[in-house]
Amino acid sequence: MHISQTALLELSLDLARSLDAKDRFDQLLSTIRKVIACEAVALLTVKGEVLVPLAQQGLSKDVLGRRFQTSEHPRLLQISQSNKVVRFSRDCPLPDPYDGLLLDRDGDLPVHACMGIPLSFNKRLIGVLTLDSLTPNVFDDIPERTLEIIAIMAAVSLNNALNIELLESRYLHSQQVMAELNVHNDAKHQYELIGNSETMVKLKHEIQLVAPSDFSVLIEGASGTGKELVAHNIHLQSKRAEHTMVYVNCAALPENLIESELFGHVKGAFTGADKDRAGKFVVADGGTLFLDEVGELPLAAQSKLLRALQSNEIQKVGQDSIINVDVRVIAATNRDLKTEVEHGRFRSDLFHRLNVYPIHVPALQHRLSDIDLLAGYFIESLKRKLGINQLRIDSEVIAMMGNYDWPGNIRELEHFINRAALSASARATGKITTIIRADCQQLLNVASNAVAQNTVIDSVSAPAAESINLKQHLDGYQRQLIKQVLEQEQGNWSKAAKRLQIDRANLQRLAKRLNIVISKQVS
Question: Phi-psi category of 264—alpha, beta or left, where left has phi over 0 and alpha has psi -120 to 50?
Fold first, then answer.
């Protein structure tokens, strides 16, 4: 096979152009095949004692998933240990690593031509190029010097491609950080705490007090109260505000991936780890890490998290080296972690590490005077989403909302207003759309049930001049109402939660606190 200087020049130009190709490794092989005719060609990179295929042509697709241990493949070992091109004789007894893998041929490879080109850069082996042809001895006539030139050009191209991949990987990591920062850039209006009730004034004061410090903060409160908003406000008022705040939903993390998600992993650390990944601690370096629903972490994960908080050091899964990080941790939970500690479900040392400065977010029923402000906030946002010129809420509806205790808190209020606004917009004819009682029938049904249960409270006369335990009376009222709805729904928690306009998990949690037991339970 004769290769002209013109062909080599074209090879050099094609390799240079291939750096911008989306699939640069496959492009490299296509370029090589323009110069050297063959049925199959493969490019493998060196990973310790293993050769990992980057691209192939003419072989079965599963080759790319294989990992060739050089000690088990004599031909690949010989190529890797050589400092020049290796041409195997047609009667070479060494087994071919691609036996049975050639697309154009079933079964074992017949007598054929096989050649391997080691690819070195700065005197270091970075890859191997293998070529196979069904025409015996076809590679024998290619001058050694020509193959050396091809090897040099291919090695330079491979080295550049690997460096580009590394840069792209780092760029993707930077994009992760930038994505978090972009959230931060719009945060001042997105994460505004709405309300001027006494409890909200106190909450805002606590945020201002703890934000400038680097103390860990534990935010407690029922689901839907706005714990994430509080975390964002602490971050925005801290000295880390110019850095990112990274959000982690601990309840949504599969137990076998928690360590990888928090601390990262290296390629090949476990099945499915096809590339290096930066963990949330690394992405949040210099900023804030928000661990939402931290009470849901299993004990094994709690132990690893504790080590990271104590030493400010993390270790990627599959990596021995230590990474130092500078991260402030804010955690949130709707559980009573003290109780969880007492029952052995949460580590005491981790609780105290997180609970340096506790903040309690009040339930909506303890800040009902903020409902009109919250309603206005949600309505203005809905107006844009629904394309309505003007959306308002009737004062009668505002009064009705003020008489409901909102067990689902702010989230329930927002969902209620969303549904009511959709109902109002469907019947609107003028420029102004008004949410009226008719748009709030579901909440009115719940309120009617509450009115029906007023006899429970009315039957308990308030003794004159005696103190009254309001919480005890309210608990009794809630207990009666929930039991009645559950009995009407034959123990179906989902249906009962829907009627009561509360998340099923929150309803079950409330029922547990109120010691509600029913004979028949349906999920």
Answer: left
Q: Using an 8 Å Cβ cutoff, are 490 and 520 in contact? A: yes
CA distance 153 to 168: 22
- For residue 263, how many other CB atoms are within 10 A of its CB? 25
Write the DSSP assignment of 130-144 as a string of letters: EEEESSTTTTTTS-H
**CB count, 10 Å around CB of 86?**
18
Q: What percent of the chain has pLDDT over 90?
A: 28
Tens digits of per-residue pLDDT, 162-191? 776 666 555 555 555 555 444 444 444 467
Nearest to 155 by CA among 293, 15, 251: 15
88-95 long-range contacts, Cβ below 8 Å, gap at least 24?
88/114, 88/115, 88/116, 90/136, 90/137
Q: Using alpha carbons only, what angle is made at residue 485 by residues 483 and 487, rounded to the nearest 5 degrees?
A: 65
- What contacts 378, CB < 8 A, 6 or more positions away? 413, 414, 417, 418
With bands split at pLDDT 50, 70 and 90, how would you rate the model's confidence at 66? confident
Instruction: State yes or no: pLDDT of 219 exceeds 90.
Output: yes
Question: CA 279, 283, 289, 290 torsion: positive or negative?
Answer: negative
Distance CA 287, CA 436 (A): 45
Question: Which position has the token pair 């479900």?
Answer: 345
Hey, what long-range contacts does 494-499 have (CB within 8 A, 24 or more apart)? 494/522, 494/523, 499/445, 499/446, 499/449
Cα of 125 vs its chain's centroid, Å: 37
- pLDDT value, residue 510: 83
Q: List Cα–Cα distances, 317 to 136, 211, 255, in angstroms.
A: 47, 32, 14
Q: What is the mean pLDDT of residues 319-347?
A: 90
By C-alpha distance, which of 94, 142, 133, 95 is closest to 114?
A: 133
Question: Which two structure tokens, joined as six digits, stand for 146?
Answer: 């020509």
Question: Strand, coil or helix: what is 105?
Answer: coil
Residue type, 179: A
Strand partners, 56: 42
pLDDT in tens, 351-363: 999 999 999 999 9
Each as own residue / partner, the long-range contacts of residues 320-327 (CB below 8 Å, 24 or more positions apart, any chain) are: 323/281, 323/282, 325/281, 325/282, 325/284, 325/285, 326/285, 326/286, 327/281, 327/284, 327/285, 327/286, 327/287, 327/288, 327/289
Placement of tokens 């042809």 in the chain: 133
Q: What angle (nearest 5°) sits at the alpha carbon of residue 105, between those of residues 99 and 109?
A: 35
Q: What is the model's pLDDT at position 20?
A: 44
Q: Report the alpha-carbon distance of residue 293 to residue 301 in Å, rounded.
A: 13
- The span from the first CA to the last CA of the chain, in angstroms, equals 75
Residues 6 or more apart in contact with residue 226 via CB below 8 angstroms: 193, 361, 409, 410
Strands (E), 196-287: 217-220, 245-249, 264-265, 277-278
